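I have been asked to look over a protein record a colleague put together. This is what I was given:
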Amino acid sequence: MTLRLQDVTKKFGSFTAVNQLSLEIPERQIFGFLGANGAGKTTTFRMILGLIDQTRGDISWNNGNIGYGESHLIGYLPEERGLYPKMKVKDQLVYLAKLRGMKKAEALKELEQWLERFKVPEYKNKKVEELSKGNQQKIQFISAVLHKPKLLILDEPFSGLDPVNVEMLKEAVVDLKEAGTSIVFSSHRMEHVEELCESLCILHHGSPVVHGKLKEIKKSFGKKNIRIHADFDLSFLKDASGVMKYKPLSNGCELQIEREEIAQSIFEKLQGKGFVRTFDLEEPTLNDIFIEKVGAAYE
């Protein structure tokens, strides 16, 4: 059940929204999509789902095309929420599940388990408009997974949720992966992608600028962050050769260095100055990589 995109391009008139994107997403994996607004993430999702056609390139899943015949195997949580505000939660979700081939009794059973899991069993007979935004989001998530899809596409699934509900949804996403679902999701939150994804793609103006396994991406960028805790003033390191960024901490500092080898000369500069509690050479965060590749912080 591998999802493959080969040289996929989408143009709207003279504007290129996605440019020569090639990806492979195996089953039982969580794949992360990163990129600023307008980078092409949602357009890519819509092409995968067959909602819009690509201008060029091929998209295949399980060596075939994705069409209406496969809709019962696919779940989609759009960034713009799409529930009927006047309809009761139960009626709405059973209706959507039946569209994907589920029997009413089976859909109700699954729905009750999900509502229980998300600690909102009392919402079954409430109208969607009566729920808070965060709880509407939970219902929208349930609508995407109720029919046990094999491919799940989540566009900004954690937006608008408080930390407790984010954890609840993250656990659900991991459990779905363990049960055999392939999951593709975009998020504004680097730490979510870092925590959940084995592989990722960073899109910039429609083109992939970073793509691969998270571990390998970090390795290729080298260890360029140093965290030092010491009992003396470290501000002199600000002007040291090879130091790109200096950030003071309450009991030390964080440095970003040009390349790994600079760490040795920084370490030598500390000798004889006083007591050094910690000197950690750390791998870059996803945020560091994004800034280096895209030239801006991801907001």
The chain has two domains: 3-218, 223-282. The mean pLDDT is 90. The chain has nine helices and 13 strands. The domain at 223-282 is CATH 3.30.70 (Alpha-Beta Plaits).
